[in-house]
Specification:
There is one protein chain. The chain is mostly beta strands. Helices cover 0% and strands 52% of the residues. It contains no helices and 52 strands. The strands form 13 sheets. Strands 1-2-3-4 form a 4-stranded antiparallel sheet, with no helix packed on it. Strands 5-6-7-8 form a 4-stranded antiparallel sheet, with no helix packed on it. Strands 9-10-11-12 form a 4-stranded antiparallel sheet, with no helix packed on it. A hairpin with a 3-residue loop joins strand 18 and strand 19. It is globular and about 65 Å long. The protein starts with a strand and ends with a strand.
């Protein structure tokens, strides 16, 4: 039996852990096994990729944790210390630590480089089932058969909070994107949302069936929470009111993608069952019958900017544009392999799609015709992003490059700029996560910034083609970055809550501030808001004195 599955950060590989004592790494495009890891002496229960995709961690019933090189298939380190089955493993978002849980009732934090235990967390009175790091890597949440959830501070090796309320074993845990709330699922058939700071239960939602809840997705503004049960049923809550607003059921196979309409009025879901469904979260009903037409699993979904149309892509090599009101669709054909990403231009006049066939196609949504096919990537294209003014298109690929294309010149067939991976101080010069990270444009589309796990940011001037690598603090990965509205400055936030400000004219470092918390930031006017687990910090930035207050 296959017990665990994990995508590599760049989406190029799939790792599976099995009771047959093996871990297999697959090429999802060809369906072939690229490597079989065979050193375990008992069933393998959990598998997790490191944030940079360079290593794979596995947990086994032989009471060990192993770190693997997925390229060579060799074990780089065997972590021993647990006295019972190890059932879960999780890398910290900054890639510095590894957390494991066991039937021995303990949680261990490891240094994956040395293989040493940095601390052992004790307190649960029964087996520990699940573990999740907070987005800023400073806290750890665990669930147990003892019916509790614990929030730990690994630095002090103490449980900061013990959350009680579930009446049966707690199976899973997930942090909200801002790190302020926790969602847990239990055999008591409930999903609970907790305030991580006050330990208060915000929501207790009873699942009307006996199925486990396996995934969650927040709306863009964080006002609603959609959870996936058994891969087929959607539960929607309002976290502010604590009310379960709906129970959405209809797909007969796993849901592959979800997208809220730009006005957050509707929720679109796609499924491996080949259908698309549009939901009204307020009523819990689909707005129409399931949208059918794709002959294989549907991979991606995107709303047009005016929320009037819906674009979907599929492994059946087609792109479809739907009228959500009538269910009618237009089919676009041309790709020669599965289509996996889609994006509307800001004005909605063009549609870009990315495919396993290594090409990007630009379509006229009104006619269904391909206006241009962009070639140049040497592996599958994994993402597309339009600049805010719609004049440029950025594409990412498993070939570990980013390309910028000029939309204002009818998309010349060669990319204007080929963005190579920034060098690392190792023998392997890769940015394996470049195809999976969000591509961020500055407000006027002058700059394109990509932050990576190697403590650096790659900044490209989209008009001149100038490439600059901005180094972080050299110790921890970059978790967020933002441009000033006037495009004169760049703020970079590291996973250890260190904020660095740069002047883009000359790429000069202006100041570096050590904060007590922070996992994301927003720049508005002369103020930078840093927010995360510890709250919100407002910094006023003076363009005249280059000082923050």
């Amino acid at each position: 039996m296959v017990d665990s599955v994990a995508w590599s950060p760049d989406g190029a590989f799939l790792a599976t852990a099995s009771w047959d004592q093996t871990v297999r790494i697959w090429n999802p495009t060809t369906g072939q096994t690229t490597c079989t890891l065979t050193d375990n002496t008992s069933m393998v229960n959990s598998v997790a990729w490191s944030p940079d995709g360079a290593f794979l961690a596995t947990a086994s019933s032989d009471q060990t944790v192993r770190i693997w090189n997925p390229t060579t298939g060799q074990t780089t380190c065997t972590l021993t210390g647990h006295t019972g089955t190890v059932n879960a493993v999780a890398w910290s978002p900054d890639g510095i630590h590894l957390a494991t849980t066991s039937w021995d009732g303990t949680v261990r934090i490891w240094n994956p480089t040395t293989g040493q235990t940095t601390c052992t967390l004790t307190g649960h009175t029964s087996m520990v089932n699940a573990v999740a790091w907070s987005p800023d890597s400073t806290q750890l949440a665990t669930t147990s058969n003892d019916r509790t959830v614990r929030i730990w501070n690994p630095a002090t090796e103490q449980a900061a909070s013990t959350l009680t309320g579930h009446t049966s074993m707690v199976n899973a845990v997930a942090w909200s994107p801002d790190g302020t709330q926790l969602a847990t699922t239990s055999d008591d058939r409930t999903v609970r949302i907790w305030n991580a700071a006050t330990e208060e239960i915000i929501i207790t939602a009873f699942n009307p069936n006996t199925l486990a809840v396996s995934a969650v997705a927040w709306t863009h503004d964080g006002t609603q929470l959609a959870a996936l049960s058994n891969g087929r049923i959607l539960l929607v809550w309002n976290p502010a009111t604590g009310l379960l607003t709906n129970f959405l059921s209809g797909h007969v196979n796993n849901v592959s993608a979800m997208a809220w309409s730009p006005d957050d009025t509707y929720l679109a879901t796609t499924s491996i069952d080949g259908t698309v469904r549009i939901w009204n979260p307020g009523t819990g009903q689909t707005t129409a019958s399931a949208l059918t037409g794709h002959t294989l699993g549907v991979t991606a979904v995107a709303w047009s900017p005016d929320s009037m149309r819906l674009a979907t892509t599929s492994f059946d090599k087609t792109v479809r544009i739907w009228d959500p009101a009538t269910g009618q669709n237009t089919t676009f054909t041309g790709h020669t392999s599965g289509v996996i990403a889609v994006a509307w231009s800001p004005g909605g006049s063009q549609l870009a799609t990315a495919s396993n066939d290594e090409t990007v196609r630009i379509w006229n949504p009104a006619t269904g015709q391909t206006t241009i096919t962009l070639t140049g990537h040497s592996r599958r294209v994994t993402g597309v992003a339009w600049s805010p003014d719609g004049t440029r298109l950025a594409t990412t690929s498993d070939d570990q490059t980013v390309r910028i294309w000029d939309a204002s010149r009818a998309f010349r067939r060669r990319g204007l700029l080929r963005l190579l991976p920034s060098p690392k101080p190792t023998a392997t010069l890769t940015h394996r996560d470049v195809s999976s990270r969000t591509t961020c444009w500055s407000s006027h589309g002058t700059y394109l910034n990509t932050a990576t796990h190697d403590s650096s940011a790659s900044l490209w001037h989209a008009q001149t083609g100038e490439l600059t690598t901005i180094s972080g603090n050299g110790r921890t990965s970059i978790v967020a970055s933002t441009f000033s509205p006037d495009e004169k400055n760049l703020a970079v936030l590291s996973s250890d809550a260190e904020l660095t400000l740069y002047e883009l004219d000359g790429y000069t470092q202006l100041c570096r501030l050590k904060l007590s918390f922070g996992s994301n930031l927003v720049w508005a006017g002369d103020r930078i808001a840093v927010y995360g687990d510890g709250g919100i910090a407002m910094l006023r930035w003076s363009t005249r004195t280059h000082q923050s207050t």
